[in-house]
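Supplementary Text 2. Reproducibility record for the structural model of the 95-residue chain.

All settings were left at their defaults, and a single model was retained for analysis rather than an ensemble. We include the record here because the model underlies the residue-level annotations in Supplementary Table 4.
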Amino acid sequence: MSGSSGTATGGGLRSRRKVRTGKVVADAADKTVTVVVGRRFAHPLYGKLVTRTKRYHAHDEANEFRVGDTVRIMETRPLSKTKRWRVVELINRPA
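Retained model, structure tokens:
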């Protein structure tokens, strides 16, 4: 077996990371925000739209994001016990 397995010359490995958009619901921790990401899908048997939410702990290096902000987060290496995401950009900040 040859080829690159996760090296910098692998050719766009960063682009394959998962990206989610959600709302910041907690910013009390240092350099960490909690982001709620919702998804809607049709129930496999009944077809009714079902909403599910999940909370992610995301790295916020500059402590710049506040509760209510809509942000985009990207999967990254483990940064702590529960933190595997980092905030990429601010999408919307309520007035």
